[in-house]
Amino acid sequence: MELTVAVDLPRAARCSMALGIRLGKATVSLIDSISWLYNATIPLGDLKPLVLREVVGNVFGLASALGGMRRRVWAWPVGIIGNALLFSVFLGAILSHGEAATLLGQAGRQIMFIAVSIWGWRQWHQSSRQRRPASVNAETRPSGTSAAEAASLVGQAVSTDRLRVGTPTGADAEHSTKPHGEAGVSPVWATARQRAVLVTLMVVGTIALTPLFRLLGSYEPVWADAWTFVGSLLATYGMARRWVEFWLIWVAVDVVGVPLLLSAGYYATAVMYIFYGVFTLTGFFVWRRVDRRRRLSH
Known about the structure:
By secondary structure, the chain is mainly alpha-helical. It has helices at residues 11-39, 52-69, 75-90, 93-96, 104-131, 147-158, 170-173, 192-215, 222-240, 246-264, 267-297, and strands at residues 41-44, 47-51. The chain has a two-stranded antiparallel sheet with strand order 1-2.
């Protein structure tokens, strides 16, 4: 004989239980999706499989770059997501049980980019609240009119390997010397002494970090990984100082970084480096032309 007991729960309790079950299923589904994204790869025949996180991270980076060029505030959080994904990729064997190459310099760059992006996101958010009317969006507001804003635009460029540039390029750059402040900061050349310091720091920094990165298990040639990390720091500093030479530092990073990434099997990032390299050369000639016109106008 079976005994059945019917329990009549209050409506609120039944709703709470149903909601809890749905949330539980959603949580499990989210965990499964994250696990799939973390482990998924794209086969490339005889080549090393492409890590899906690397592809997605670079797509987020490119989207952030395009948004930043249009002065959209959403570019910052999108870039942070991309940097976080690439950080997990470049830790390689540390997070993938020896199946991928570890590039500590590349991972360290992502931390720097995330820090700059958080700071720049805050700067843009404050600037948009304090300076723009409700009818004016981030794309149309003037740039380069204060030290804080100019610095935030500099940070914007750094967070996606120099592509997401707040300072003017192309046709806009040709008008950067106009007095009404409609464009970005004015570029200048570093002095001979400053150039010597940059070169010295590049060499000494690479030599100093190479044994440390090797000790921590970074991929060979370790000096190339250290070179790209130190170069990224110096390029960031050079951009903050408005030095035209900072573009050339990025070129030096790309020349070493592309072969390193190809050797390590990070093909998606290598392709993006090549794309950024073309932009970098364009940016150098644009900034040089802007500086030349500024000198002639004086």
